[in-house]
Amino acid sequence: xxxxxxxxxxxxxxxxxxxxxxxxxxxxxxxxxxxxxxxxxxxxxxxxxxxxxxxxxxxxxxxxxxxxxxxxxxxxxxxxxxxxxxxxxxxxxxxxxxxxxxxxxxxxxxxxxxxxxxxxxxxxxxxxxxxxxxxxxxxxxxxxxxxxxxxxxxxxxxxxxxx
Length: 163
Description:
One of its GO terms (molecular function) is iron ion binding. The chain is mainly beta.
């Protein structure tokens, strides 16, 4: 478990390769494109758990949040509904400035990819889903996505990255 300031601890699986049944019900599952274009909206689906979590009055998921590169991009409050699957859809847009921010934050050689053909830039950023179960606390998961610069490039031409 990890502390969020003075807030509740974040639960993490003991062995991410071998989740327990309880972990399978709580660790968020993030579905998102592997690559997105800065400035263009894309959809991210967050499902609470790889197996259904109950959504009953005494035991349910209270909320789900989604972050892109540590910036909150959406939060959805949930109610006990009797449904077994808690899935939230977020519409996200990566700002072109994120590419510049990542370039400044990380090693200039490995932080940003620059295409040898067209000069476009891309960065790898984290999507982070966080959810709170009213009984079992806060759980999180990450997914890396590639964010391409939104500037026009030749369609259908695969980028060739220079390190």
